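Students often ask why we bother encoding 3D structure as a string. The short answer is that it lets us treat folding as translation between two languages. Here is a chain of 271 residues written in the first language.
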Amino acid sequence: MTTITLGPSGTYSHRAAQAVADDDITFTESVTAIVEAVADGEADRGVVPVENSIEGSVTESLDAFSTYDIAVVREIITPIRHALLAQRESFDLVASHAQALAQCRGWLDEHYPGIDVEAVTSTARGVERAREDPSVAAIGHPANATDGAELDVLAEDIQDRSSNATRFVVVAPVDERSDAGSKTSFIVYPNADYPGLLLELLQPFADRDINLTRVESRPSGERLGDYVFHIDIAAGLYEDRTQDALEDIEAIAENGWVRRLGSYDSETVIN
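And here it is in the second language, the structure alphabet:
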């Protein structure tokens, strides 16, 4: 089974993917490319980040789910431990993924005020920069320093909040979509705009005592002020109450569409 995730080797996505597959993991540097590869049958599984407890949703993932027809089959929660890695104590620039830089913003401001930062495609890519250039430090998992003799761990647990964690989901071909699981994700494009629309979309779940764990809007790309809604609930598609609620939603969105990404279970992986 081929699993594709964000690379290069050593990213937090790679560590999450190792909970899905021990080997045959391939890499790309775009979340959209991961989802597209699964939708086109070029990979059996994809592991993508969807939400961080500090910086919020990964919008590229949400937009890819709206564009490509795939299934979500599993959720992996990974606590994030950031470390400052460099060849020497003094450096001029800190390179890492934009989310990692944001998650450590307070710590950097306190310990390296005014330091230049550079956003790269992944934490592992920042580590590569630090290995190549002694004037560059990286933010990444502390184990990345042991992957090569060039880097030292200058500081550990530099994330601004100890509760820092990222939610990843495993995507699969659409024919593997399941009704079984404790959580469900779906996308609603109502193709309408009137007062009370969002309330109408949410009321069917409140009426059936279904807890909403996430609701987020993203631009549809069709026109300004037109939105797609990403919704997660704490219930499975196998439940009658979920099916009944979604029937109500589909009636409200009769001029648009509803995409059921599937039901799945969640696990926490510490690495």
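Translate back mentally: The chain has a mean pLDDT of 93. Keep this in mind for the problem set.
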